[in-house]
Amino acid sequence: MGLFDFVAEAGEKLTEKVLGSTNDANINRPVEISPERVNQLRQENIGRMLAQLDIEGEQVTVTVNGALATLTGTAPSQEALEKMVLCAGNQHGISQVDCQLQVDAPEGGSGEAAEAGASTFYTVQPGDTLSGIAQQHYGSAGKYMAIFEANQPLLTDPNKIYPGQSLRIPRLPA
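Request: output the structure for the sequence above.
Response:
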């Protein structure tokens, strides 16, 4: 599908996975970690996040090399593919996702797949709200739930978005 750009500083950090509990009084102590270990931790974290999506029928392999995450395998729909790309791209330290996934469902098959095929990605800016993003993309702030629902389970609360996060903006049915 191609290469997607993300904000590397946004997303979940690996601090706890590297250091253990972040409640440690010595949190600022220097820690040496190899680039290979960072790649492995990011890869494992993206794998966990993909599993939480609970997408039936997906067969995805994740590899991480520095700030590049590569997804290979198959996705059951365009919507599932987009959510998997966002899962990987919203990982702290990842600035690009090389999506080499194939979609099992043919384009334009179901209404949901056709709608998801028209999705765009939006990077949240400081001060953004889902209602403001909905106003910008749909001309109506009240349609923010369409964006929230299109990004579940990546979003758990419509009031909790952060700058640098990437969201799916689906095309609304006519």
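Residues 35-53 form the longest helix (19 residues).
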